[in-house]
Every structure is written in structure tokens, then in C-alpha cells.
Design the sequence.
């Protein structure tokens, strides 16, 4: 296989990664933007999404139904769990930035333990809902992977419309700008926070439902999505959805390409260092406006 | 005076335990004392200076690998290895601090986390030299310190105790010194401290380097005493552990790191012998501490009347 | 003419479109007590923040004791002898009074820290509260501690931002006596709303309005200045 087809393959893989990453990162970005909370347990919500989809697949009669059920039930379950965590822990800490980081670290350990105890230590494969294969002149490519990209794009479009067009979205954006003023205008800030935290977690879970037929479910799988979501959110500019999307594409593609031509580890080293340097020298992110 | 006596009593108590403890707990205590040195370093940064770092595993690993690679490739002895490791921990902490201390609060946490992660990945990337996650065993020849064979239980305990004692007394002297007071001042009110003429960046950098020296010494000692060097010590888990020890024992108390290390070690140990629930123990401990006892055991005790506790 | 200890020229600082300090020329004579007055929002606190280095000037120069300090960070200016006390009390609420004062006293590298701290506490009448946690002091005592920390730096220029705010009448009288005892060894620049304190203490007064200097002069000159009366004390014919 020549360089061109190889690059095409790397770009395809990168795009799939970028799509799922965008879902998870937008979730993280929302919680940070609206609540000023850095949610370290975000990767665990992703992991739960994958593990729960595997659990759903055990009870469903066929892969298509399993996928459809998971797409609906898993985000609801994970979102509900997040809402519970918000009420039981984050709210009591008054959303103090440093304390919530420590608390969400604690939460991530508990969620890992729960997944380990209930679903075991093994990696669990989930069958894709369909197994179409697209034949390029040089290699065949999974049709499901391209479906993932389209589905992620559709979900992101829906989220964007929700934020821009709906009343709930308006209330969230108002709270993001100034929580005290929002409260003065009669907005129930506690409920907005709970909803935002749940929505952020549900988006991570959705990403996981989409990816789990490609990548197996495992109780420690939340680590990489967390790290990469962090990287995307910070490089894109904390709390900026548009920046997050651009950064997801950038990181997903460059990760795919560097991973294929050099090594996945090198790609991650470069990305983590980039994040640290962006935070130090350009805290508003590469695409954010200076405050 | 009371504080000094208390610290000497603690060290004497640990020395007495050397003769009393059954083998299993004897081995555990040696491990705990080294981890407590690591936690004391974390305490200097977080407890006293208010620098909440998520990257101390990097400084621990720097000390461990500086010692281990030296022994492996250049045949450095145990004592030079320990010194090398201590300096490596401080040096890396200084480099990270030069950049990370331009940020504060949440950004500082994420920047230190990212640097530590990059360090861990770098250890994996150069797996041919570092052994990656598998690590490599330290040759027995490298584990002779001043004639003491560190593969033996007795010398191992005593060396751990010696390192711990030096660390503890140095920490006490530090926090009772004028500079120690300035560290606390940065934690309490950075703006006021600047207007008293203290350079916040320089104070915090110094504290972070001191903290890194402790972490580096602990890393090198851990490798020497237990004969193993590996990249797993650079993972985020080893950044969270000292935070957990310090939060439990009491941030900003000299004896908190030891108390937290002992309690947490045995809590995790008990949980993992009876079940596989050690993740749960760590998670619940973090949540409970941050929700209900943010000052930890000794910090709460100090608030409730024992004001002289340093 | 007395020697100038501090001179500012063309000092400016804007926040967005608002010119908080707009081309101010200003000079302090060594050893004087100088008051800075003006209506709320006139730029007084911003102006002294530029002098103390808590904020960077957009334009202009500041000379202290002959040296250009415009680019020096705040802590270096403090080391050169410019002390600043905060308008909103800024002390170490979690530490005891001794530690609060010691942090200021130990800048001087004296031999006996404990004795020097006791002396610093006695100057502001807090000698009986050394073991009290600063956050537990009464508001008036916290203000005095704030001033005491500034004094303990043994500054050559002491900048006080609304020092008498919230003090009882008896405490104000003690405060006035304390400030008077500082000069001429120390130069004092004082932002103050209480006109009785200003007229009692100040040898010279500068009036700021909309970020610009409206007038500078002795208390009598300021009192008689029609522009000041119009802008600040009310319209002359009222």
C-alpha cells in the first residue's frame, strides 16, 4: 500500500476518533462552561456508557435492537447517575473548583469499582448493528465506522440546536454568563446545574455507545477519553463549544495520523505537552477570545 | 519544645516497633515510612503552600529512575543513587514549576497532571531503556548502603526509618522557620504577601522544589529498598496517593502525612485482602474527606484545642 | 522646595473604554502627609494601585527616590520602601496576630523577632491580642492590624487606602496621633473620605475627578477652590 492510501486510512481512523471525541469533549466543555466544574469522572461516565451497552446487548434478541435500546437507555441511565452525584456531592461542596476536582477523582474510583464488581475485569466485545463493508481500491473499510461519524455529527447538531434555540438552552447560557444574575431572574440554578451535569455525562455515554462495537468495553477504558477530552477542551478554549469542535477534529486527525505513522504514545506525549503549554501561555485556548 | 518532643517520641516509637512488629507488618511499615516521606513532600507543596498538584508521581518517578538507571548503566552505588534521585526529583519539580506556577488553582492542577502524564508516556515510549510498565529489577549489588544489605528486612526498616526521621525533622524545622511562615502566607493570602514584599513566584517555586526533593528521595529509596523500578510509579495513582494521605492525616500538619499513610495503607490492605474493593476505599475516602473533614484528622484536632500542633 | 520622594508623570490606566486614571502628574514631598480625595469612582484606588504596583500603568512613568520604578513588580517596590494597606481589609484571617505581624517584621532581618513583633503590636495597641486568630478580631482591630503590618515594614512611603473606614470615633483619634508620629521619617499618602480627618492631618491635598487631577494645594486652598467645590463638595451656591 502506497503513501496516499495509507494517509487516507489514517484520516478515516482519525475522523472516527474525532467524532466520538467531540461528543465526549462537548460534554466536558458544557459542565466546565456552565458550572465551572472540572469533572475528572467524565471518563468514567464514558466507560459506564460502554459497559452498560454491553449489558444491554446481553438481553436484547439481536444486535440492531440492542444498539437501538442502548442508544436510548444508556445515556438516560448515565445521565441519571450524574444527576444523583451532583445532588449528593457537588452541590454540597458549593461547586468549589478545587474541592470538586478531588471529589470527582473519588467518584471516578467508585465508578471503576462498581463496573469491576458488577461486570468483571474482562474486556467485553459488543457486536455492531450491521456489518457493511465499503471496498476501496486499496483496502476495505467498515461501514459502521462511517455511520459513527454521521451519527455523532447528527447528535452534535441536535445539541447545538438545543443550546441555541430552546428555552432550556437559553437558561443554561444565561447561567453560564452569570449565575447570580440568573438566580435574580428567577432561574433555578441548582436545577440547571444538575441538568447540565447530567447532559454532559449523557453525551460521554452516547459517544461510548457508538464506539463500543469498534472498541471493547472494559472497566479501565475511561482513562484515555478523559485525557483526550481534557486536551480538546483546553486547546479549544474552556467552555467554548465551537472551539471544542474544531479542536476535536484537530486532535482526532493528528492523533490518527501520528499514531499510524509514528506511535500512539508519541501522539499522546505531544498532545499532553501541548495542553500544558497552552494553559500556561494561552489560557483562553487556541481558538478562544482573550477575556 | 512540646512539638520537638512529640516528633522525637514518634521516631523513638517507630524505632521500638522495629523490634516488636511481626514480619508482615514490619515490611509494611518500611514501605509506609518511605511513602510518608513522599507524602511529606506533597504536604510542603499542598498543605503548607497551598499548591494543589496532580503531578507528584512525576517527581517520585524522576527520583526512582535517576537512581535505577544510574545503577543499571553506570553502576552507581546506593548512596550516590539516593542523592542523585533526590536531586532529580527537585530538578524536575523546578522545571515543571517554572512553567506551571505561571498558572494557579484549577489550571495549575491540570498543568501538573499533563506534565506528569507526558512524563509517564515518555517512560513508556522509551520502554527499551526504562522497562516501561514492566520496569526492571535492581541488581543486588546496587542495594548495599553503607555496608547494610537492603535486601534484608532489618536493614531495610532501619534505612527507611533513618530517611523518614531526617525528612520529618527537616520538615519541622522548615515549617517553624521564617520561610515556612512565608509559605503559609502564600497559601492564606497571596495578594497580601506580595504587598509585604514577598515574590510569590519565587516562594512557590522554592516550596515546589523542596517538595520535589522529598518526592525524589522517596522514589530512589523505594527502588533501593524494594529492588524494583517501573513506570507504574509515574501513573496518576501515585499523584493521588500522597494527596489522599495528606488529606486524611491533615494538610499542613507535620505528622499528618505519616498518620494518613499508615491509616490509608492498612485500609487499602484490609480491603484488598478481603475483597477487590480497594478502588472503592480510595474513592469513598476522598469523597468523605472532601465533604466532611477537609482538614483531616490532625487538622481537626488542632482546631479543637491542640493549638501547638505544628 | 523640599525634595520629592515620589514623582509620577502622565500616568494612565484604562479598563475597557473607561479611563480610570487619565494622564495624572503627581508629586510627593519627602516627609509630608498628603491626602488624595475625590468623588466615588474618581480613580483614587486605581491611581494608588499604579503607584504600589498592584496594577500596571498603560502609560506614564513613576520615579521613587530618584529611580524609575514604572516596570518594577509590586513586591520589589515594597522592598524599596513603598508599603500599601488595603481598602478592604486584607490580613491573614487564619493566622494569629503574631504571625501576621511577624510576616511584616521579618522583612527587616532584626535579631529578635519576638521582641520586634511585640513592639509592632504595641504601636497599634494590639499587644494583648498576639495569640488571637486575626479573623476573630473585631473589625476595628482588624483595620489596626492592617495598618500595623504596613508600619512594621518600616516603609519610606506609606500608602493608606481609606484607613479610618469603619473605625469608632475614639479609634480615629488614636489613629490620627499615630500617623502624625510617623512623619517626617515616613511620607504618608492617604485616600480618605472623612473630611475631618483629611483637614486635620493633611499638609497637602490632591483632588481627583474623572481620572484627572482637579487641584493640588494646602487644605485652605482646596477648601477655597471653586472647581473643587463644584465637583466634590457640592455646588458653591447651594
Sequence:
Amino acid at each position: 500500500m502506497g503513501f496516499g492510501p495509507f494517509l487516507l486510512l489514517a484520516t478515516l481512523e482519525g475522523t472516527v476518533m474525532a467524532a466520538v471525541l467531540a461528543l465526549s469533549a462537548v460534554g466536558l466543555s458544557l459542565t466546565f462552561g456552565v458550572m465551572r466544574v472540572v469533572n475528572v469522572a467524565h471518563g468514567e461516565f464514558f466507560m459506564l456508557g460502554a459497559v452498560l451497552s454491553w449489558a444491554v446487548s446481553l438481553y436484547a434478541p439481536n444486535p440492531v435492537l440492542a444498539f437501538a435500546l442502548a442508544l436510548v437507555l444508556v445515556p438516560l441511565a448515565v445521565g441519571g447517575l450524574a444527576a444523583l452525584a451532583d445532588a449528593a456531592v457537588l452541590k454540597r461542596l458549593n461547586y468549589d473548583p478545587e474541592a470538586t476536582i478531588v471529589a470527582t477523582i473519588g467518584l471516578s474510583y467508585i465508578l471503576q469499582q462498581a463496573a469491576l464488581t458488577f461486570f468483571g475485569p474482562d474486556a467485553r466485545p459488543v457486536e455492531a448493528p450491521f456489518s457493511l463493508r465499503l471496498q476501496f481500491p486499496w483496502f476495505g473499510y467498515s461501514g459502521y465506522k462511517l455511520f459513527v461519524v454521521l451519527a455523532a455529527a447528527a447528535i452534535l447538531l441536535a445539541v447545538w440546536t438545543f443550546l441555541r434555540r430552546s428555552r432550556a438552552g437559553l437558561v443554561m447560557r444565561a447561567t453560564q454568563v452569570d449565575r447570580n444574575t440568573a438566580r435574580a431572574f428567577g432561574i433555578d440554578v441548582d436545577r440547571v446545574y444538575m441538568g447540565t451535569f447530567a447532559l454532559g455525562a449523557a453525551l460521554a455515554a452516547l459517544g461510548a455507545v457508538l464506539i463500543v462495537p469498534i472498541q471493547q468495553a472494559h472497566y479501565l477504558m475511561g482513562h484515555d477519553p478523559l485525557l483526550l477530552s481534557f486536551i480538546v477542551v483546553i486547546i479549544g478554549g474552556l467552555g467554548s463549544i465551537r472551539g471544542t469542535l474544531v479542536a476535536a477534529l484537530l486532535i482526532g486527525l493528528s492523533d490518527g495520523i501520528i499514531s499510524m505513522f509514528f506511535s500512539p504514545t508519541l501522539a499522546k506525549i505531544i498532545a499532553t505537552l501541548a495542553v500544558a503549554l497552552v494553559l500556561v501561555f494561552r489560557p483562553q485556548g487556541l481558538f478562544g477570545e482573550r477575556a | 519544645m512540646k512539638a520537638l518532643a512529640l516528633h522525637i517520641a514518634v521516631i523513638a516509637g517507630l524505632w521500638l516497633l522495629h523490634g516488636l512488629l511481626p514480619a508482615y507488618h514490619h515490611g509494611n511499615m518500611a514501605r509506609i515510612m518511605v511513602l510518608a516521606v513522599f507524602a511529606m513532600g506533597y504536604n510542603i507543596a499542598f498543605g503548607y503552600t497551598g499548591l494543589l498538584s496532580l503531578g507528584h508521581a512525576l517527581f517520585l518517578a524522576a527520583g526512582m529512575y535517576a537512581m535505577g538507571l544510574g545503577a543499571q548503566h553506570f553502576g552507581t552505588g546506593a548512596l550516590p543513587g539516593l542523592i542523585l534521585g533526590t536531586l532529580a526529583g527537585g530538578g524536575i519539580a523546578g522545571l515543571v514549576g517554572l512553567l506551571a506556577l505561571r498558572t494557579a488553582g484549577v489550571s495549575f492542577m491540570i498543568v501538573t497532571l499533563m506534565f506528569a502524564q507526558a512524563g509517564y508516556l515518555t517512560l513508556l515510549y522509551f520502554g527499551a531503556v526504562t522497562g516501561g510498565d514492566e520496569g526492571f529489577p535492581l541488581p543486588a549489588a546496587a542495594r548495599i548502603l553503607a555496608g547494610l544489605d537492603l535486601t534484608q528486612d532489618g536493614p531495610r526498616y532501619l534505612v527507611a526509618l533513618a530517611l523518614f526521621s531526617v525528612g520529618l525533622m527537616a520538615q519541622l524545622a522548615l515549617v517553624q522557620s521564617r520561610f515556612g511562615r512565608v509559605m503559609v502566607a502564600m497559601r492564606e493570602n497571596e495578594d497580601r504577601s506580595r504587598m509585604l514584599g514577598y515574590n510569590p513566584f519565587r516562594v512557590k517555586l522554592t516550596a515546589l522544589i523542596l517538595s520535589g526533593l522529598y518526592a525524589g528521595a522517596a522514589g530512589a529509596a523505594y527502588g533501593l529498598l524494594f529492588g524494583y523500578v517501573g513506570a507504574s510509579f509515574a501513573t496518576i495513582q501515585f499523584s493521588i496517593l500522597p494527596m489522599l494521605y495528606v488529606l486524611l492525616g491533615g494538610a499542613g500538619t507535620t505528622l499528618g502525612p505519616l498518620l494518613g499513610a499508615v491509616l490509608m495503607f492498612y485500609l487499602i490492605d484490609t480491603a484488598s485482602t478481603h475483597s477487590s474493593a480497594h478502588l472503592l476505599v480510595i474513592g469513598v475516602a476522598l469523597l468523605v474527606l472532601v465533604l466532611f473533614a477537609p482538614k483531616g484528622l490532625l487538622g481537626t484536632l488542632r482546631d479543637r484545642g491542640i493549638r501547638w500542633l505544628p | 522646595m523640599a525634595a520629592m520622594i515620589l514623582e509620577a508623570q502622565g500616568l494612565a490606566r484604562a479598563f475597557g473604554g473607561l479611563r480610570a486614571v487619565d494622564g495624572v502628574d503627581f508629586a510627593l514631598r519627602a516627609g509630608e502627609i498628603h491626602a488624595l480625595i475625590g468623588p466615588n469612582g474618581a480613580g483614587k484606588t486605581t491611581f494608588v494601585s499604579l503607584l504600589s504596583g498592584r496594577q500596571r500603568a498603560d502609560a506614564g512613568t513613576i520615579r521613587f527616590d530618584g529611580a524609575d520604578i514604572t516596570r518594577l513588580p509590586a513586591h520589589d517596590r515594597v522592598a524599596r520602601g513603598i508599603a500599601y494597606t488595603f481598602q478592604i481589609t486584607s490580613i491573614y484571617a487564619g493566622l494569629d496576630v503574631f504571625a501576621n505581624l511577624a510576616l511584616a517584621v521579618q522583612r527587616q532581618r532584626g535579631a529578635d523577632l519576638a521582641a520586634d513583633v511585640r513592639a509592632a503590636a504595641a504601636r497599634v495597641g494590639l499587644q494583648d491580642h498576639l495569640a488571637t486568630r486575626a479573623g476573630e478580631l473585631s473589625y476595628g482591630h482588624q483595620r489596626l492590624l492592617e495598618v500595623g503590618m504596613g508600619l512594621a515594614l518600616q516603609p519610606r512611603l506609606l500608602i493608606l487606602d481609606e484607613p479610618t473606614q469603619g473605625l469608632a470615633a475614639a479609634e480615629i483619634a488614636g489613629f490620627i496621633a499615630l500617623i502624625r508620629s510617623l512623619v517626617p521619617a515616613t511620607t504618608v499618602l492617604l485616600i480618605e473620605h472623612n473630611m475631618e480627618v483629611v483637614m486635620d492631618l493633611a499638609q497637602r491635598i490632591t483632588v481627583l475627578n474623572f481620572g484627572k487631577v482637579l487641584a493640588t494645594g494646602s487644605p485652605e486652598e482646596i477648601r477655597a477652590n471653586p472647581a473643587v467645590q463644584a465637583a466634590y463638595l457640592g455646588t458653591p451656591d447651594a
User: Anything to note?
Assistant: Chain C is about 35% helix and 25% strand. Chain C touches chain B at residues 52, 54, 73-76, 78-79, 83-84, 86, 90-95, 99, 102-104, 106-107, 113, 149, 153 (CB under 8 Å). The first strand of chain C starts at residue 4 and ends at 15. Residues 105 and 111 of chain C are 11 Å apart (CA to CA).
